[in-house]
Design a protein that fits this description.
The protein is mostly helical. The protein has a domain at 2-30 and 147-303. Helices cover 72% and strands 0% of the residues. The chain has helices at residues 2-54, 79-97, 100-106, 116-142, 155-160, 162-179, 183-188, 199-232, 235-246, 253-273, 277-295. The longest helix is centred in the first third of the chain and has 53 residues, at 2-54. The two termini are 40 Å apart. 27% of the residues are buried. Mean pLDDT is 87; it is low at 62-71.
Length: 310
């Protein structure tokens, strides 16, 4: 009962209050955008009137400008459609071209290349960067009035809320340590089985892994939440967790279900703090911790043997 009460309190004090705060912020931003658009339309209309008077033409009476409570049927916000279509296209490209299986088809195994496997992970990570960062950024640049820096890239907001993310990492750390005692854990991690061979192998893999996490956080916690938030408010978080859960298909059920809750927490924090960097740091921190713990079960470097795997 105590645990239930604590969870209920956390839900009310953190999640529910955060979602209400996010909804108020999004509504205020949407209203401000509406006022700016109406002001621009009114200025353009007045300019047309002056032009009409100078040319001696008679103009029909112009209706009074609408308020934010009276939607204009002549204006349509395409941003939600653009974001969701880009998400669908990007995920499809990841599935059909970004997998390491495609790399193996394009670049057949080379026994004489000691880094052939690492290059496969570079293919995988590079496609994540292309699909999760480059394509969304191009879409943002093409949308009038949108700026990439507004898509939760604020580092200052991250540092202001650093203690929250540190607390989350502290809470997750014991779970990772306990999981590391299981044989299935160190047969799964590190993904790059030659991470034990040298410092270069380990650091190169961690760099590729980190790039993938940065790309993923920008896509799900930056592009999707910012792009959908002004129209949906906090409900954008629950739209985001659907594809976020689906990219975990094929992994253990516990990890896939856990991604739902992690997506809700990280999405809420990203929208509340207007920064996606907390998710990047937590993901990288947990990933490095898992790999370091798993390396303790790998053969020593001088053995020239890879880590065990499934």
């Amino acid at each position: 009962m105590i645990i239930v009460r604590v969870l209920a309190r956390l839900y009310r004090r953190f999640l529910l209050d955060s979602w209400r705060h996010i909804d108020r912020e999004c509504a205020a931003e949407a209203a401000e955008e509406e006022r700016a658009r109406l002001a621009g339309a009114q200025a353009a209309d007045q300019s047309d009137r002056r032009g009409g008077k100078r040319s001696g033409r008679r103009r029909a009476k112009t209706p009074a400008p609408r308020t934010s409570r009276a939607p204009d049927a002549t204006w349509y916000d395409w941003r939600v459609i653009v974001v969701l279509v880009v998400v669908a296209v990007s995920l499809a490209l990841q599935e059909y071209y970004g997998d390491r299986g495609v790399y193996r088809e394009v670049f057949p195994y080379d026994r004489d290349d000691p880094y052939w496997t690492l290059k496969g992970f570079a293919w995988w990570s590079g496609w994540r960067f292309f699909g999760y960062v480059i394509i969304p950024m191009v879409a943002i640049w093409l949308m009038p009035g949108e700026r990439v820096r507004d898509y939760y890239l604020s580092g200052r907001e991250f540092w202001r809320h650093f203690r929250i993310y540190l607390l989350l990492f502290v809470l997750v750390f014991p779970v990772v340590v306990i999981a590391a005692q299981n044989e299935s854990f160190y047969r799964t991690y590190p993904f790059y089985k030659w991470s034990n061979r040298s410092s270069f192998d380990f650091l190169a893999w961690q760099g590729l892994y980190a790039l993938q996490f940065l790309s993923l956080e920008f896509f799900f916690r930056g592009f999707m939440l910012r792009g959908l938030g002004r129209a949906m408010g906090s409900k954008a978080i629950f739209v985001m967790i659907v594809p976020y859960c689906m990219i975990h298909f094929g992994k253990p059920l516990a990890e896939t279900l856990g991604a739902i809750f992690a997506g809700i927490i990280l999405g809420t924090l990203a929208m509340r703090t207007r920064s996606m960097w907390g998710g990047v740091v937590i993901h990288i921190g947990v990933a490095v911790t898992m790999d370091v713990l798993a390396l303790g079960h790998c053969p020593p470097a001088e053995s020239n043997l890879p880590c065990k795997g499934h």
